[in-house]
Amino acid sequence: MQDEHDPELGPEGLAPDPPHDSLPDSQPKLWPDALRNWQVLEIDGQATAVPEPSRVDQPDDAATRAQHREDLRDLQIEDRGDEVIVATLDNRRRQVECGSTAIYAVTVLNNGDRAALFQVQLEGWLDPKWLGDTTAAAMIEPGTRATLRLPLSPPRRAESEAGDYHFAVSIRSPQHPGRLARIGALLTVLPYDAIDAHFLELPDPEVSWFKRAAIVPLAVVNRGNRRVEVELRGASLPLECRFAFAAPSQEGGTAAVSLQPNQGVSVPVRIEVQHPPLAGLQLREVTVQVDARVQGQNHQSGTIAARPRTHLLARPLIGPWQFVIATGLAAAGALGLLLFVALVYLLAQRSVGAPIAAAPPPVVAQAAPPVIIVNLNQPAGTPVQTGAGTQGAAGQGAITSAFTAGASPDPSLPLVLPDQVSAPGGAIASVPSAAVPAAAVSQPDRASGAQGASLALNPAPVGTKSNDANQTYGQMFQAVGRRFDLDWHMLAAQAYIESGFDSLALSDAGAMGLMQVLPDTWREWAQPVEVSDPFDAYSNVLVAAAYLDHLRSELGAKGYPDTQWMLVAYNWGPDKLNNFLEGGGTWDTLPEARRQYATEILRIAKTIP
Question: In b/e form, how buried is each residue of 170-183, taking b as 16+ CB within 10 angstroms?
Answer without folding.
Answer: bbbbeebeebbbbb
